[in-house]
Amino acid sequence: MLNNATILIADDEPIIGMGLSWAVRDAGGQVVGPAASVQAAMVLLGKRSVAGAILDVNLTDGLVSPVVEFLMERQIPLIVQTGVGIPDDLAVRFPGIIVRIKPNSPDDLIAELAQMILDREAGSLLPPQAANDTVATGCSALPTEHMQESSQDSGTAE
Questions:
Q1: Among 15, 51, 18, residue whose Cα is nearest residue 34
Q2: Which of 63, 121, 130, 142 is 20 to 30 A (C-alpha) from 92?
């Protein structure tokens, strides 16, 4: 599915980071990371180019904003997964950013990212539904299909 694509994983929860790493490898990709901090993610991005990324919003040293900015400036597909939404400034600056609320299936995230990478290679960075899937509300951008689920879920959020 990933055809040897290199994927950055950044999450401050080691179990989540490792689970995503295994899912990337199982899907035929190469893993960069997992990085638990913004600093570590930026160092990794300075050493290796990536085809895509799955990022948590809150890392050990702060918000993932610098990593998102770096990737978006280079039109590298990314998915932000979070239990808390994304900061307003990111939602405003990058209205098409894909946000998925935890918990979610690593396989689903990988499949979605793989499609985004294919779309980018075909000349379209974001899939057509991306702009419609994300709704900015208050201090977060939440995907509309998960808004009801996240308010009803009693699962762990970040």
A1: 18
A2: 121
Residues 103 and 155: their CA atoms lie apart, in Å, by: 7
What architecture is the 6-152 domain classified under in CATH?
3-Layer(aba) Sandwich (3.40)
Q: Is 146 left (phi over 0), alpha (psi -120 to 50) or beta?
A: alpha
What is the average pLDDT score of the chain?
82
For the chain, what are the domain ranges? 6-152
Burial class (CB within 10 angstroms; exposed 0-12, middle 13-18, buried 19+) of 72: middle
> Which one-letter amino acid corresponds to residue 145?
E
The token pair that represents 85 in the structure block? 């939404």
Instruction: Return the percentage of the chain with pLDDT > 90, whole number.
Output: 65
Q: Which residue has the higher pLDDT, 115 or 144?
A: 115
Measured between alpha carbons, how far is 28 from 1 in angstroms, rounded to an integer?
6
CA distances from 91 to 45, 99, 109, 111 (A): 22, 10, 20, 23
* Contact (Cβ atoms closer than 8 angstroms) between residue 9 and residue 35: yes
**Residue pLDDT, tens place only, 90-104:** 889 988 899 999 898
Cα–Cα distance measured from residue 101 to residue 128, given in angstroms and rounded to the nearest whole number: 20
